[in-house]
Structure formats: structure tokens, C-alpha cells
Amino acid sequence: MKVIVVGNGMVGYKFCEKLVSKTTYKKENFEVTVFGEEMRPAYDRVHLSEYFLNNDARSLELANQDWYAENGIDLKLGELIKKIDIQNKTVESHKSEIYDFDKLIIATGSYPFVPTIEGVDKNGIFVYRTIEDLDQMIRFSEKIKSKGKNKAVVIGGGLLGLEAAKAVKDLGLETHIVEFASVLMARQLDARGGDVLKSKIEELGITVHTSKNTKCFAGEHDVEKMHFTDGSELDANMVVISAGIKARDEVASAAGLELGPRGGVLVDDKMQTSHPDIYAIGEVANFLGFTYGLVAPGYEMAEIVVSQLYGETKSMLESPDMSTKLKLLGVDVASFGDAIDIHHEHTPIIFENRHEKIYKRVNISADGTKLMGGILVGDAAEYNMLLQIYKNGMSLPKNPEDLILGSRNGAESLNDVSALPDAAVICSCENVNKGKICCAITDEGFDNYKAISKQTKAGTGCGGCKPMVQNILESELKKMGRVVKNTICEHFQYTRAELYDIVKIKGITDYDEALNTIGLGHGCESCKPALASIFASLFMETANKQPAIQDSNDRFLANIQRNGTYSVVPRIPGGEITPEKLIVIGEVAKEYNLYTKITGGQRIDLFGAQLNDLPAIWEKLIIAGFESGHAYGKALRTVKSCVGSTWCRFGMNDSVSLAVKIENRYKGLRAPHKLKGGVSGCIRECAEARGKDFGIIAVEGGLNLYVCGNGGADPKHAILLATGLDEETCIKYLDRFLMFYIQTAGPLIRTAPWLEKMEGGIEYLKSVVVDDSLGIGTELEAQMEKLVSDYACEWKEAIENDAIRKRYKHFINSEERDENIVFVPLREMKMPEPWK
Amino acid sequence: MQNVLDKYESVMEEKVTYWYPCGHVEDFPENAGACIKYKHAQIAVFYFARMGKWYACQNLCPHKVEMVLSRGMIGDAAGIAKVACPMHKHNFSLEDGTCLTAELPAIATYPVKIEKDQVLVGFNF
Ligand code: SRM
Ligand SMILES: Cc1cc2nc3c(=O)[nH]c(=O)nc-3n(C[C@H](O)[C@H](O)[C@H](O)COP(=O)(O)OP(=O)(O)OC[C@H]3O[C@@H](n4cnc5c(N)ncnc54)[C@H](O)[C@@H]3O)c2cc1C
Ligand code: SF4
Ligand code: FES
After folding, report:
1. How many domains does chain B have?
2. I need a surface site. Which of A99, A106, A330, B83 has the fewest CB within 10 A?
3. Residue A411 pLDDT > 50, yes or no?
4. How far is the CA of A634 from the centre of ligand 1 (A)?
């Protein structure tokens, strides 16, 4: 059968993938030719914006060119089909070559819709759909920035517009969003939801202008200004138009295929167009009067056409689901089912918190029994569960408000996956239901997320269902009586906490011994540092004792930088430093021509040191009284302080002294992940102590101790563990808390996610640390005391030991240095040559 | 930088024209890597002391084209000896140079032999 696919986008590719993955697929039976107008094989448009971060087009590819060849598919890139002849069943490419087909699949997607506005053809006005669009935007933004211009406007406050706004902001431009309607995301959100989203986005420094109609673009060659119909205007050095999409149906239309009234190739429930041998799928298809600008419906359409070609009878049952959950500009936004309820048929339950900028709405059927749809802005944690309840028509809890407020008064939790029926679709991108996932676990024996995802394809699309798949996995394994374990890697079938205990009880003292007695194979970059950390926590050994199992940075006691040079971070406890020491840092930096910067951790980083120079640099610093800052280690980093009562008129205690004391107490302490602390002198919290793994805030009557906060990618405020403490008790609790974390957390798990996974949560942690409910308090304190008293500066060790110093040579057989290291000027200093 | 990458090509044992003595066994760290210089090439040499095996490959990581592989951690994945780049932890097989974690170009590998405590790396240039 000769099959021609016009369009090699996301859906066109998915069709190919589904066609060849049928177990009965034989290359001999199908002769598949795919035409793609773009120069590269189909890529992931959904994650297009990532291109701004990594500039890596290959990582967006859905499959490389070899894949098509290996599966017997002839992929013709850079070829546009300009004509379809439905009588003779042929297509003609722009090179005027003619190809005949038995079945034709039209997957031409859509165009960004560009309204006809005066001046829309000026330089600097872009659409946002292809990698080429992005390349042009990047180039143009560089150009205007070099001229000191930086104002960008995105037209359209829909889903794609917000996505584009994020991209523009990441390019470092001042960003404005202009929306014609009175709310953002008018298709998905009601007015109040849109409003909350707007205030949340403005918080990020993006200006949102709603109810604005663009009259014209002004500027000589490059766009400079926008004028609106209400007489107002806005400076604009770059514009991205994201005003909706329009099906690319022109070739189909010219061929005489029927279109829907508002465009799109008309298809029936088998995706057949008005010609029985021609199908249309993806954004170009019009089904039940609509076109669908999301991947999930497109993938479902692809599946249906594949089944048609295999003589099966699958058809589209109902109108595709348009539910979405997105993280736009870092804000969770979700809408599902009948979200807006224009006809006021349902009963809404609404929760709005203007302070935290959260808006949640669920629509309940008039008889109060079913969930009909909903909106979540600012916090979409309940989305997956709500979607399941909606899609499966599951019955509602007694108090339907629990759906968005969470169950109070000890009622049963909603987030229980075991209540879902097998038919519940978990991954809507790939249309994988719960039954299939369970089957992979129970019948086929897969017991980790990666394997299940590979087997069932769940989670390979947008990835939004990952937490749910994980929950199903855990609940199924539990049902099978298996404990769910996060083993370290293929070499050790234990969790980190188990390994810690085994190493301690068996008295294992080095890595090889561990591998020989309780491990397999020869180790790897996961288990080596994990065990190194355990040995350090048990014996306070420095990274110099077993260098080969240290993570690469620890092995050289420095952080590797972009060009293979290293950074030097001396410890500056509490951020307090004398002028003499500052001068030494300056002198060392000058001598070795290092880039210097004040870090976010209240100390100074010296960048660009060559491996060969590290010992000499540290020798000088150590003579001046500095110690290693352990910036490279999963260890205590800094204890940030505010100036406190010694100077500050509000200070309730001497926070610098306390911070210095605590930093010196725990310096060198290695842990499953890095540890940061903070001490603030009063509730104004200038040390940001609640953004740290442990934070102390002085209040009337003593110290408040907070634990398990962090900044980073998923910021968490630390939670109150105990109040009104004196210094001694505070340190006692800290000892217990840190030691308990060190013994029980998984590798590379910071305190916040550790607490999140802890059964019983903060109440349990309080009972262990404050009430000593496990009776291990004194033991934990004693262990910590031992670690504290055995501390040694590992850089001092290193410079005093010739064998260790020998490690700091680029070549083992030559005194030469690495001639590949290139620096370029940066203001008055220097930086590595950027990566290409 | 691309031309730096092109400089390195795997050498099969039977194609070796010169066994370069780059040092003594005890000059090399156990269960880790070190870098040697041969003509203009930078070669990472790894000593898997547990298995008594030696491997050599280009020091250049094809991911961001930096001279860093000798500083990576070594180990095995399902029995295949490998190195993890210290920059972004991409893994490369030391048996045939293929990247085990992403679609990156393979790295060049070189044969190593030990004679009278001398470490010899095989080249054809
Ligand atoms: C130098 C510095 C940035 C600066 O110029 O200010 C920095 C630089 C790096 N940070 Fe950071 N972080 C620095 C302060 C911070 C802070 C702010 C703070 O400490 O108050 C944070 C957020 C607070 C927090 O950690 O909770 C921060 C959150 C991270 C994270 C995310 C951690 C997380 O739990 O999500 C990483 C990634 C990681 O550790 O896995 C990271 C990782 C890194 C690494 C180590 C990346 C790497 O592996 O090479 C960077 C190299 C450091 C080096 O010296 O070569 N850095 N990093 C800061 C050094 C502080 C210091 O004196 O030690
Ligand atoms: C920035 C961005 C973010 C998005 N985010 C999401 C999201 O979070 N969730 C979601 O569900 N969806 C999202 N989408 C939408 C999703 O990408 C589309 O729904 C999906 O790509 C549609 O697939 P398609 O194959 O129908 O069209 P496309 O992927 O556009 O593919 C069509 C291809 O056909 C080619 N073509 C057209 N005409 C011809 C011709 N005559 N001859 C040869 N080739 C031709 C085109 O060049 C194109 O490569 C996003 C889109 C963008 C641009
Ligand atoms: S935030 Fe931290 S890890 Fe990220 S680039 Fe800055 S210094 Fe590096
Ligand atoms: S440079 Fe080696 S993995 Fe990135």
C-alpha cells in the first residue's frame, strides 16, 4: 500500500510512529513517503521554548532521520506539496515531481494567524511556531540590545502568547503582553481566574494590557511603536504576534476537499475527509465543527487513521478532550471540562486567595452529583485527580468543596489513585489508561518509572502525568506486598538509608570493601559519591582519603567551570570578614588573574584558576587564615546572617555571632545534599533564614528554629520546628535534626523534599527532634559531637601532602598546561570563551 | 573547536604503529583517570585497579568540546566500562567510545598495555 503523509510535524510523526510500532507492521506491506516543508525532521513544538535555554535543536527532535530510514519510511525534508489531485490520487511537490498514493494523510498543521494591521510587515515582527522563528527572534533581539533597545511586545494573551512572553523575557527584554479581550486566556479561564493570572504575571515584571486593539505599527524599517484604537501607544522594538492559529488547509481546499465553515479539512469520526482515501489529522482537521490546537487530540486522530489502514474499526467516540495543565511563566494554570460554563448550567464552587494569588473553581452538575469542569490558577496540584473524577464520572465527596480545599477534619484523602477505574486515562498525550500501566507493573513485572514509561509510553509527551504514574506504581507494588525502594543504582540494591546502616553495622571502611561484600560490578558515578558521603558522615573522613570515589569536584576540592578551570571559595563564616582578609583575597586574585564575584551566599568566589595553580592559591589563603568553603561538596555551605543587634536598631539578638558559631560548628559536615543555614536578628528576616535548610529567627523571648527550606528550582519556605529556644537548646535540636537527615535521606535529596516524603510530615519530625519520641536524641547528639570534633580542613591537608599535590597537574607526563583554555575579556575582568 | 574534535580517531590494536610509554603504573591514580600528552593530543588514561584493566580515550568531551574526560568518574554500566564526564555527567563506553546517555558523537579510544610496569598507549600517528 502506498501511503503518503503531507506534513512532518508532531502529528505527522506520531502517525509514522504508531504505524510502524504495530506488531504486524512489515516494511513490505507499506511504502510510506513523508513530505515535510521544514528542513529538519519533526520536533517537539510543545517544548519549543526550551530552545532559548539550550539552543539545541537536536534535543527537540522526535526521531532522527535514521529512524525513518530504519523503519522503511522515505522522509523528504524541505519539500512542500503544492497540489493534490484527488481524481488520479497523486500529489505534486514544489519541485514539480508527481507521486501517486493509495492512501493520503494530510497533517499540515496550522499557521500562526497574523491579522492585517497597518505596518505588520516591518522588521522585528515575528510569529512563534518554528525553530527558524526562534532563531530569527534571537538574532534580532541581539541586534536591538546592542543598540540599547529592549522593549518587546507580545500580541495575544492566550496560551501561546504567554509562552512567547516567557521566551521574550528570557531573551532579556522588557516584556509587555497586549490582549484584545478583557482577560488573559479567555478560552480557558473565566474573568476572575484571568485576573488572578494577570496579577501573578505582573508580579514577574511583565506588563499586561488587556482590552487593547492594535491600530498600527510605526517605525521606519524596524518596528518602534504600536498605536491602539483607544488612542494610546506603546514603545515596541520587537513584536511577537500570537493571535491564534489558522488551519493550513489551502492545498486540501484547492483539491476540492470539503472544509469546515471556519476552516480546517472536514473529517468524520474515522478521520476520513470527503474523499474516502484521504485522511486529515492534527491541527488541520476539523472534527465536529472545531479544529484542535493541542497535541493530545492530534495523537488520537493519528491512532485512528493507523487502525483504519490495518482494517480495524476504531473511531473517535466523542469530541476530543481539551483539558490542559501548563506551567506558564512558572505559574500553574489548568482548565478542564466545561470550565467557563457560559450557559450557567452548573453550580460553581470558587476559592480565591488574592494574597497568595490562587484561584480555583469547580463546576458541579445541577443535581450536585457530578463534576463538570473547572479552573485552577496558581496552584494546580489537584488537577490530575480532578480530571480523573470528571472524565470517569466518579461520584463526588460529601462536601464537594473538598475537591479544591483538600479534605479537612481527617476525611479521606482525594489523591488516592487506587480509587480510579482501569479505564481512567492517565496519560492523555499518549492515551494510556490506568489498566495498561497496572498491567505493565503486575503482569510484565516492571518496577520503576523509567521502564514503565518506556513500555507504555505514558509520560513521554508533556510529562504532566509523571506524578500520577509514580503513585500508581507505588500503590500497585504495595498491593503486591513489595516495598517500594529507591535503590542507589545497579551496583547496590539498597536505599541510601539502608546502606548507611549496613556500612555502620558491618564496620565497612572503604568503597572496594563495600562493593565486594554487598555490591555488584564496578561502581559508577551514582554509588561512589553516595558511599563517599556515608563514609564522611560516619567517620568524618575528608575527600582526600578515598579520592577515586569522590564526585569529580570533590576529588579536586574545587568546582569545575565552563572551560575546565576551577573556582576557589574560601569560607567566610556568617559573611563576616576583616579588611586584612579581604586584601589577601584581592592579592591572590590579582596574582593569578582570577575573576572575582560576591556570591549569593555572602562570600567571595574566585573563578578561572587552572588545575596546576590550585595548591599554590590555597597555600596563600590558608596562611592568611582561610579554610575550605566546601563550595564543591554536598556539605555545609554557608550560614547567612543579618547584621543583628550589634548594629541594627531592630535586632533582638546578635545574629552574626550566632551565625559564625553555627557555621564553624558544622563546617565540613557532609550530607546527602548540600546544607545551608541562616540567622536573622528579628522577624524582618534580612538573612532569608526561612529560605534555608535551617533558619533561626530571634523573637521576643528567644529563638525560633525553622527547618527544611530551600531556594533553587522549587523554592520552599522552612517550617517552624520549635519556638522561644535558648541558644543551647537550639543547637541541640539542630544537631538532632541534621544527624537524622544525614542518616535517613536519599542521595541528592535536600531537606525540603526529604520532609515532604516523610510519613507524618513536620509533626513526626517534631516528635523525633523535640520530644525525642524514638529515644535516639542523645545518640544523634553524640554522633554530631564526634563529627564536629573530628573536623579538619581538607585543603590544608592537601597542600601539606605531596602525594595529594601531585593530583593537581593537567598532564601526568608533562609540566605543560592545557593550551585549549581560552579566556575573553569581560568588563574589567575575564570569562571563559562561550560555548558554541 | 569542531576541528579539535576531528583530530581524534580511534586506533585499533592491530593498527598501532607506535606504543608510547607515558609513565609508570604507580604514576596513575587507581580507579580513576589522568591525562597524558602525546604530540598535540590529550589522552585520558584510566586504571580500573579492581579489574586490573586499563583504558584510554580522547580527553575531549564531545558534548561541549572541553578537555575534561580524564577528571570524570569511572565505573561500569551493565558490565561495560565507562567514564562519566565531570561537566554534565554524560557517560561514554570505554570499550568502543559510544555515548551511553545521549546522542552524542562517539569518543576515540586507544589500546593500552603494560610492560615491565610501563604504561604504553597505542597510536598510529
Ligand atoms: C557561586 C554561586 C552563584 C553566585 O555567583 O552567587 C553559585 C554557583 C553554583 N551553584 Fe548555586 N550558587 C550560589 C548560591 C546559591 C543560592 C543562594 C544561597 O546560597 O543563598 C542558591 C539557592 C538557595 C538554596 O540552595 O536553597 C543556589 C542554588 C543552587 C542549586 C539548586 C539547589 C536546589 O536544591 O534546588 C544548585 C544545583 C545543585 O546543587 O544541585 C546550585 C549549584 C551551583 C553550582 C555549584 C553549579 C555547579 O555544579 O557547578 C554553581 C557553581 C559554583 C562554583 O563556585 O563554581 N546552586 N545557589 C553562589 C555560591 C554561594 C556560596 O558562597 O557558596
Ligand atoms: C510554542 C508552542 C507551544 C505549544 N505548547 C503546547 C502545549 O503545551 N500543549 C499542547 O497540547 N500543544 C501545544 N502546542 C501546540 C502543538 O505544538 C500543536 O498542536 C502540534 O504541533 C500540532 O501538530 P501538527 O502535526 O498538526 O502540526 P505541526 O506540528 O505544525 O506540523 C505540520 C507540519 O507540516 C508542514 N507542512 C505544512 N504544509 C505542508 C505542505 N503542503 N507540504 C509539506 N509540509 C507541509 C509544516 O511545515 C509543519 O512542519 C504548542 C505550540 C507552539 C508553537
Ligand atoms: S543559578 Fe547557579 S547553577 Fe544556575 S547558572 Fe547561576 S550559578 Fe550556575
Ligand atoms: S561537556 Fe561533557 S557532558 Fe557536557
Report:
1. 1
2. A330
3. no
4. 11
Cα-flanking dihedrals φ and ψ of residue B63, to 5°? -65, -60
Condensed to tens digits (0 to 9), the pLDDT of residues A229-256 reads 999 999 999 999 999 999 999 999 999 9
Nearest neighbour of B103 by CB, restricted to A58, A515, A816: A58
pLDDT of residue A412: 42
Q: Is the CB of A710 under 6 A from ligand 1?
A: yes
A465 and A384 Cβ atoms separated by less than 8 Å: yes
Work out the pLDDT band at A424, boundaries 50, 70, 90.
Answer: confident
B-chain CB neighbours of A58 within 8 Å are: 103
> For A713, what's the count of Cα atoms within 13 Å in the CB-facing half-sphere?
2
Q: Please work out, in degrees rounded to the nearest 5, the angle formed at the alpha carbon of residue A36 by the alpha carbons of A9 and A132.
A: 70
Bridge partners (DSSP) of residue A680 are A697
pLDDT tier at A413 (50, 70, 90 boundaries)?
Answer: very low
Distance A451 CA to ligand 2 centre (A): 29
Strands (DSSP E) contained in B30-117 are: 32-38, 41-48, 53-58, 60-61, 66-67, 73-77, 80-84, 91-93, 109-110, 112-115
Indicate which residue's Cα is closest to atom 20 of ligand 1: A601
Low-confidence ranges of chain B (pLDDT < 70): 1-3
Q: Characterize A56-83 residue by residue with b for buried, 16 or more Cβ atoms within 10 angstroms of its Cβ, and e for exposed.
A: eeeebbbbeeebbeebebebbbebbbee
Check CB contact of B65 with chain A, cutoff 8 Å. yes
Mean pLDDT for the stretch of residues A133-157 = 94
SS3 readout for A793-814: CHHHHHHCCHHHHCCCCCCCCC
Kindly provide the ipTM of the predicted complex, given to two decimals. Answer: 0.75
> A119: Cβ–Cβ under 8 A, 6 or more apart, which residues?
A216, A217, A218, A219, A223
CA B64–ligand 4 middle distance (angstroms): 5
Cell output for A425: 486515562
CB contact under 8 A, B28 and A564: no
**So what's the pLDDT on residue A483?**
65
Report the percentage of chain A scoring pLDDT > 70: 98
| Contact: B31, A816; criterion CB under 8 Å | no
CATH number at residue B58: 2.102.10.10
Ligand nearest to the CA of A601: 1
Average predicted confidence (pLDDT) for chain A: 92
Query: What was the pLDDT predicted at A407?
Result: 53
CB contacts of A529 in chain B (<8 Å) are: 73
pLDDT of residue A397: 78
Structural domain span for residue B85:
2-123
SS3 of A437-464: the string is HHHHHHCCCCCCHHHHHHHHCCCCCCCC
Type of residue numbered A710: N
Q: What is the pLDDT of residue B60?
A: 96
CA neighbor of A464 nearest in space, from A474, A453, A473: A453
Looking up cell 485527580 gives: A385
Q: Is the pLDDT of residue A293 over 70?
A: yes
**Cα A99–A102–A105 angle (5° rounding)?**
80
Burial of A336 (C-beta count, 10 Å sphere; 0-12/13-18/19+):
buried
Residue A563 and residue A585 in contact, taking contact as beta carbons nearer than 8 Å? no
Is any atom of ligand 2 closer than 6 Å to the C-beta of A40?
no
Chain A and chain B share a number of CB contacts under 8 A equal to 93
Least confident of A185-194, A222-231, A402-411, A680-689: A402-411
Secondary structure class of A665 (helix, strand, coil)? helix
**Residue among A132, A197, A125 nearest A154 (CA):** A125
